[in-house]
Design brief:
It contains 13 helices and no strands. The chain is mainly alpha-helical. The chain folds into two domains: 57 residues, Homeodomain-like (Arc Repressor Mutant, subunit A, Orthogonal Bundle); 150 residues, Tetracycline Repressor, domain 2 (Orthogonal Bundle). It is globular, with a radius of gyration of 23 Å.
């Protein structure tokens, strides 16, 4: 009696065909894998073959979508900035009192950095490369304009309503808020060791957020001097 023919393995073919038909999903998987690789290894240490393997793709597909490793890193930065700006837009800072708007901005920056440590490591890497990827991307630069304009509006309302006395450059204020959060988190291990305090504890983090908020609002309410 003749034996039954072996069953055909069609699933991998179907999966490959499905992947080919969904370029958006392919790009998203590659970007996710690249974000993790660049955050862990930096631009110099990142490997395209590891990114492709983690994304379930091949290097040829990666190069087809992004061109080369440098262009892929730029795309990762763009996606990171797009994500934080989209999250900021949901705060509706213009719909609340000026001091509450600033309070929300400080808390958002702190919470976002805590939830997305890869964002800080990507920025560290880009600073090592003197921001050449950001400088060459008009898309990324355009993303950073709305938040400064929003802060400018909050400051104007605060002064008009007599809540704020200080009138800082909104860009300087944004940098100060980011710096207060960034330095504490990016140097958490060394600060904890040098001062012999566990600054990663939840209580220490709550105290840091309260201090940041009081510092920024105190300056805005009372002005310089």
């Amino acid at each position: 009696m003749p034996r039954d023919p072996a069953p055909r393995k069609r699933a991998p073919v179907r999966r490959a065909a499905a992947a080919t038909r969904d370029p958006g999903a392919n790009r998203a998987r590659i970007l996710d894998a690249a974000t993790a690789e660049f955050a862990r290894c930096g631009l110099g240490g990142a490997r395209v073959d590891r990114i492709a393997a983690a994304a379930g793709a091949n290097k040829r597909m990666l190069y087809y979508y992004f061109g080369n490793k440098e262009a892929l890193f730029t795309a990762v930065l763009a996606a990171a900035y797009e994500h934080i700006r989209a999250a900021e837009a949901k705060l509706s800072l213009q719909d609340v009192a000026p001091d509450e708007g600033v309070r929300r901005m400080v808390a958002f920056t702190w919470d976002y950095y805590l939830a997305h440590p890869e964002f800080l490591t990507l920025l560290n890497t880009e600073n090592l490369h003197e921001a050449r990827h950001l400088a060459g991307s008009p898309k990324i630069r355009a993303m950073n304009s709305p938040v400064i304009a929003t802060l400018a509006g909050i400051l104007r309302r605060g002064r008009r309503e007599g809540i704020f006395r200080a009138s800082p450059d909104p860009l300087q204020l944004y940098i100060s808020i980011a710096a207060l959060a960034y330095f504490f988190l990016s140097n958490n291990h060394t600060l904890s060791a040098v001062f012999d305090r566990n600054l990663a504890r939840p209580a220490a983090r709550r105290a840091r957020l309260a201090h940041m908020t009081e510092l920024v609002l105190g300056y805005l309410r009372h002005g310089p001097g």
